UniProtKB/TrEMBL annotation:
Its EC number is 2.7.10.2. One of its GO terms (molecular function) is non-membrane spanning protein tyrosine kinase activity. Gene3D superfamilies: P-loop containing nucleotide triphosphate hydrolases (3.40.50.300). The chain crosses the membrane at residues 35-53, 501-522. Belongs to the CpsD/CapB family. It catalyses: L-tyrosyl-[protein] + ATP = O-phospho-L-tyrosyl-[protein] + ADP + H(+). Residues 397-424 form a coiled coil. This is non-specific protein-tyrosine kinase. It comes from the Bacteria.
Length: 780
């Protein structure tokens, strides 16, 4: 027999062309066939999304913007160089400090203390708690402090008229009372006033619930929802936003928060101004007493000595002395400030900023710069968190220590210079006083008194002027920030639920979930499906046999006009085409696994050949599992096994059936060595003798995927018909069986068994088909 590994369409088939992995194309075809499942899931997801949107509380975002004024005192200092070294411009550092202040617990706590948010009134629906702020139908009035336990839920049930029931499941409280009537609790008394009875009529069946929140929980609640961001990188405007279900409450909170933010900034400036004013006032106390005393002394001296004015020489002396005394007063003021600054550095005050020298009338550029930079660094440290773990905090600590050391060194030098200047001033005053010794006694005494008076008067005037300047500065103080856009309900934005995104996700999941399910189901399913047939390389497909009801092996004889019979006739036609050049073809029928239908196929295939008038013999070579004896009611004591062991001849093992042109050779008794018998030379002898006597020889063999017996037969037959049963045969077993067959016989074809009865396409390639041609008889 001529060997050529050709399929019906002429394409060469090898074992390497068999692919049993996951084919995306096949999966896509499977999914497209089940399009209705996708439609169902998408509709279901859409309905679920619509329900979710309709029963979810909307979340609104409200915002306010604040302009932060630049800190002029910090501009131009080497703090900017420090911050630039960290990748942060000086202005941005100031903004970050302000952001931390705005998001701080202290600021939120101060804002909440001004608002009455601890009393949270709401009513319950099936899924949500609907806030009643700011229009709660009831209010709580306390006699003294609030006696209600914190974070405990209470319910008010309206009973009609003016009565209600107050109850709490947590506290096991159940009180019936009237609106406006005192309710006594262990920690105090309170009453519940009804503001709007109409609400209870409109929302009949609903109770008013309320919780008195603790301040800690309120702060966490609002801080957790709030965010502070810089609107633009180059600008100095901060946006404070908060998201929640009650936009009115959030608007009130943000506006109060910015008000407190401004108050804190102004309080800080006023506190600094008060410290400077207090310093000047302390100086004025002593000067004021001295001025009154010297004024009285001068008046009494003039009155008692009847002297009104000094001589020209005395006037010249007092002018010089007064100038030197003023200089001495200035030096004394500087010394007092130096003492204050030394005390500040010694006690290492945290959070307290030093007074700038220029505000005290001390004009020393170097000292002014050092004190200003130290104050700026101290302010940054108070706004920076994280302790030593924060790299910027560590750098600031180093810079503060360095500035303090530099300032202390400068201060020591200034104090020494001040003492020298004071000593020089005293020497000059003493020299001029020696000139006054030449004056008459009376004039000399008056000169001393008038000198002290003018000194105190000018010093007092100077301090009053400084006091006035500081008070004017305090009066002109303004916050370091300004509200640009107050929060408003009108400009709130609904951010959730995002209907468009939810619908998109729902439809997406409605498509992905069934796709993933089907993909996993079919990818993990190792059984052969009809869609997998085209993946067995270019092997010719002889046909597809529909599902046969019942346990009959002889469907062809029992129902010759059935769809199954027509399917086997189609298989016969295609096999005739494959074996047309072979005389008396010998066809081996096998499968990958037991139960795939190879015996059923062998019997019915031999039946259709016999019905064609061909002398056909059916050989049972499944020596381990004989079945033909029962199917045809034959004697199984003789058969293939007895021939192979030499017990019977060919004529003795051939048994006739009740069907014309069909003979059967049963398997015979089960031998102890079936594989060795199949591999013996007598197998070839048996096949040669049968080819001499019959037109077609159909051999039913054992499953090649599990048993080695069939491997010895494939080299003796003209063609191998591999039976694959839909949703039964394992893919890997099928691929292995095909490779085994093709390794020893080039003429291998497929037969699909137990296919979908509704699928009326049978054949080979990608369009194997047979249309049921059974004609229905009309009823008369």
């Amino acid at each position: 027999m001529k060997n050529n590994n050709k399929s019906l369409n002429g394409n060469k088939t090898t074992a390497s062309t068999i692919h049993m992995g996951i084919d995306p194309g096949v999966i896509i075809k499977i999914l497209l066939k089940r399009w209705y499942v996708f439609v169902f899931f998408m509709v279901l997801s859409f309905v679920a999304a619509r329900y979710y949107i309709g029963h979810t509380m909307p979340v609104y975002r409200v915002a306010t913007s604040v302009l932060i004024f630049e800190d002029e005192g910090n501009s131009g200092s080497d703090n900017d160089e420090l911050l630039k070294g960290l990748g942060l411009p000086g202005g941005m550092r100031n903004l970050e400090n302000q952001i931390k202040i705005l998001a701080s617990r202290e600021l939120t706590e101060r804002a909440l203390k001004r608002l009455r948010f601890e009393e949270d009134f709401y009513y319950k629906t099936v899924r949500n708690d609907i806030s009643l702020y700011p229009n709660s139908p009831i209010k709580l009035v306390y006699e003294g402090k609030n006696p209600l336990p914190r974070n405990v839920e209470f319910h008010v049930e309206y009973l009609g008229n003016n009565d209600f029931r107050l109850f709490s499941e947590v506290q096991n409280i159940n009180i019936t009372s009237s609106f406006g009537k005192i309710i006594k609790f262990p920690d105090g008394n309170f009453r519940i006033d009804c503001i709007n009875k109409q609400w209870f009529r409109e929302f009949e069946g609903y109770n008013v619930s309320f919780v008195v929140r603790s301040l800690d929980r309120l702060v966490k609640y609002f801080n957790g929802r709030m965010s502070v961001n810089v609107l633009t990188r180059s600008g100095s405007i901060l946006e404070i936003s908060i998201s929640g279900t009650n936009q009115t409450q959030d608007v009130d909170f943000l506006n109060e928060l910015t008000a407190v933010f401004q108050d804190i900034s102004l309080e800080k400036k006023n506190m600094e101004a008060n410290r400077r004013i207090q310093f000047i006032d302390n100086q004025l106390v002593g000067i004021r007493d001295s001025l009154v005393l010297t004024e009285n002394q001068l008046s009494q001296f003039r009155s008692s000595n009847r002297v009104m004015d000094l001589s020209a020489q005395g006037q010249a002396i007092i002018t010089q002395v007064t100038r030197l005394e003023n200089e001495k007063a200035r030096l004394r003021l500087e010394a007092n400030y130096y003492d204050y600054l030394a005390d500040y550095l010694e006690k290492d005050a945290v959070g307290e900023l030093p007074m700038v020298p220029i505000s005290m009338g001390i004009e020393d550029p170097g000292l002014n710069n050092l004190v200003s930079e130290l104050g700026s660094l101290q302010e940054q440290m108070s706004g920076e968190g994280g302790g030593e773990k924060n790299p910027l905090q560590s750098l600031l600590n180093q810079r503060v220590a360095k500035r303090k050391a530099e300032l202390l060194e400068t201060l020591n030098g200034l104090q020494r210079a001040n003492k020298l200047a004071m000593q020089e001033n005293n020497d000059r005053i003493a020299k001029i006083n020696s000139q006054a010794a030449a004056l008459p006694v009376t004039e000399r005494q008056m000169l001393g008194i008038e000198r002290k008076f003018k000194l105190n008067d000018e010093l007092y005037t100077f301090l009053l002027q400084k006091m006035s300047e500081l008070q004017m500065q305090k009066a002109s103080n303004r916050p370091d920030n300004e509200v640009v856009d107050p929060a408003s309900v009108m400009y709130s934005q609904m951010i959730a639920p995002n209907s468009t995104m939810i619908y998109f996700i729902a439809i997406f999941l409605g498509g992905v979930i069934p796709m993933l399910f089907f993909y996993l189901f079919f990818a993990l399913n190792n059984r052969v499906r009809e869609e997998d047939i085209t993946r067995f390389g270019d092997l010719p497909i002889m046909g597809s046999i529909p599902h046969i009801k019942g346990n009959s092996f002889t469907e062809i004889f029992d129902n010759p006009e059935s769809v199954v019979a027509e399917a086997y006739r189609l298989v016969r036609s295609k096999l005739q085409f494959v074996t047309k050049e072979t005389k008396n073809p010998l066809i081996l029928v096998t499968s990958a696994m037991p139960g795939d239908g190879k015996t059923l196929t062998s019997i019915n295939l031999s039946a259709v050949y016999s019905l064609l008038g061909k002398n056909t013999v059916l050989v049972g070579f499944d020596l381990r599992n004989p079945k033909f004896a029962n199917a045809f009611d034959l004697n199984n004591e003789v058969g293939v096994s007895t021939f192979l062991i030499g017990k019977h001849s060919v004529d003795e093992i051939i048994q006739e059936t009740f069907h014309s042109n069909l003979s059967v050779i049963s398997s015979g008794p089960v031998p102890p060595n079936p594989s060795e018998l199949a591999a013996s030379s007598k197998t070839q002898v048996l096949f040669e003798k049968l080819k001499e006597r019959f037109d077609y020889i159909i051999v039913d063999s054992a499953p090649i995927g599990l048993i080695s017996d069939t491997h010895h037969l494939t080299t003796h037959v003209d063609t191998v018909l591999m039976v694959a049963r839909i949703n039964k045969t394992l893919k890997d077993m099928m691929g292995h069986a095909l490779q085994e067959c093709m390794a020893s016989n080039e003429h291998v074809s497929l037969l699909i068994n137990d296919s979908n009865a509704n699928n009326k396409k049978y054949g080979y390639g990608k369009k194997y088909g047979y249309i049921n041609g059974q004609t229905k008889r009309k009823k008369k």
